[in-house]
Amino acid sequence: MAAGPIICGAWYFTILAGFYILYCPVMYLMFINHHLYRKIVDLLFALWELYPVALFQWCYGTKLHHYGDYVNPNETTIIVMNHRTRVDWNYVWIALYHATQSNYPECICKEPAIMEEANFFDTVAGGKSRIKIVLKDEIKSVPGMGWIMQLNFFLYVKRNWQEDQVNMSQYVEYYKKLRYRQRVVLFPEGTDLSEDNKRRSEKYALTKQLPVYDYVLHPRTTGWSTLCSSLRPAGLVSVYDVTVAYDTPAQTELDLLRGNVPRHVYFYFKRYAIEELPSEEEALRTWLMNRWTEKNACLQKFHTDGWCDFRHDNQQAGCRKNSTLADSRKIASLTVYSDLGIGQRVGDVLAQGSSAIPLGNDCELNGTMP
Fold first, then answer.
1. Are 91 and 185 in contact (CB under 8 A)?
2. Distance between CA 298 and CA 256 in Å, rounded?
3. Pairwise CA distance, residues 347 & 326, whole Å
C-alpha cells in the first residue's frame, strides 16, 4: 500500500523537523530558566501528540472505541496497560486525548488539593498533567524521536534493576522538586505479545507455577511497585488499569509501513483512587497480577465471543462521548505544524471538525465492548 510509506514518512518527518526547528532553539533555556523550559517543551510535545491522532484516524481510517472512566488531565496518575503490539504507543496518544475530553457525570474523579487556575500553557496543552512513557533504554538513541523524548525527560529502563532503581529514583525526585503533575504510561509486561515473547512467558509461568495466559504476558511487578510507592509522596492521585484490543493488530512498525493497520481499536479505562491500592510493595505486586488475570479473561471473551464486560465491580462504567477536533489545542497544533510546512492536509481535515474524521468513540453505558 503506497499510503503506508507516505504516512510513516510524514510522521517521522514531523519528529525530525520538530527537533531541529522547535526543540533545538529552546534547549539552552534549561540552563537559564528551567521551569520555563519545561513548560515550553511540554507544550511542543503536547501539540505534536495531536498529529498522530489526526494521521492515524484520518489517513488510515482507524476507529477508536472508548469505554470506562474519564481520565482527569490535571492529576498525577500511573496508567498500566497491556502491551499487545510494538506500536501500542501510537494509539495511546489517541486514547488519552479522547479520554480527557468530556467528563461523564457518573465518573467522579478526585481533584488534587493543590489545583491552581489553568493558565495559557495548561489550556493549550490539554491539562496540567503531562504524558510520560516508560521506555526501553535503547529507544533514547533513535534519531529525532529518542532525542525529543530525552529532552522531555521520559523514564528509560535498562532491565538491570540496580541501574533502573537509581534512574527511577532520580526521575521521581526531579519531578517532585518541580511539583510536576504527570500521567506515567507503564507497560508492565515489558514487551509486546509476539509469538516468541508468548512462549517465554508460558515457560516462566510453568516454572513459577503461575497460570498460563493466552492474551497477555505475565507482568514485571518490581518496577511497578517501586514506581507507585515512590510517586505516592510526590502527589500520586490515581492509577488507571487500561486494556487495549485490536480487530487486526499491527504487530510491528513494518506493518504500519505496509499499511496493514487495525480498523478498530478498543480501549477500556478503569480508575482506582490511590487510597484503594495497598501501601506495601508486595501487596502492590499482587494487585497488579490480579489485574492481569482479569485482563486475560476479558480479552479471551472479547476475541472468542466478540464482546466483553470489562467492569471489575458493580459500578456502572462511564461513557466516552464523541469528540470534536475544533478546540484551542488543535488550532495551536495546526499553526505550529503548518508553519513547518507539514501536515497541511491533516490541518484542513482538523479544521472541518469531527465530521471529516472517523473518530468512532462508541459508548456502551453497561461498560461492555462489542
1. no
2. 27
3. 11
Separation of alpha carbons 140 and 78, rounded Å: 21
Please write the tens of the pLDDT for every residue from 91-100. 888 788 778 7
φ and ψ at residue 182, rounded to 5 degrees: -150, 155
Helix (H) or strand (E) holding 239: strand 236-246
Grid cell locating 35: 521551569
- When pLDDT is averaged across residues 61-74 and rounded to a whole number, the result is 85
> Cβ atoms within 10 A of the Cβ of 312, count?
15
Report which DSSP code applies to 21.
I
pLDDT tens profile 248-295: 888 788 887 887 888 888 999 999 999 999 999 999 999 999 999 999
d(CA 138, CA 47): 25
Distances (CA, A) of 18 to 30, 155, 195: 18, 21, 36
β-strand partners of 236:
76
The phi, psi pair for 38, rounded to 5°, reads -60, -45
Residue type for position 23: Y
Q: What is the DSSP string of 97-161?
A: HHHTS---TT---PPPTTPPPP-HHHHHHTSSSEEEEEEEGGGGGSTTHHHHHHHTT-EEE-S-H
- Mean pLDDT check: name the lowest of 6-20, 118-132, 183-197: 118-132
**How many Cα atoms within 13 Å fall on the side-chain side of residue 118?**
13
Alpha-carbon gap, residue 365 to 370, rounded angstroms: 12
Per-residue burial over 40-62, b if 16 or more Cβ lie within 10 Å, else e, is: bbbbbbbbbbbbbbbbbbbbbeb
DSSP, res 319: B
CA dist 56 and 90 (Å) reads: 8
Burial of residue 271, with CB atoms counted within 10 A of its CB: 0-12 exposed, 13-18 middle, 19 or more buried: buried
Q: Residue 311 has what pLDDT?
A: 52
Per the listing, cell 507455577 goes with 209
- For residue 237, the tally of other CB atoms under 10 A from its CB is 23
Cell numbers that stand for 56 in this block: 492515524
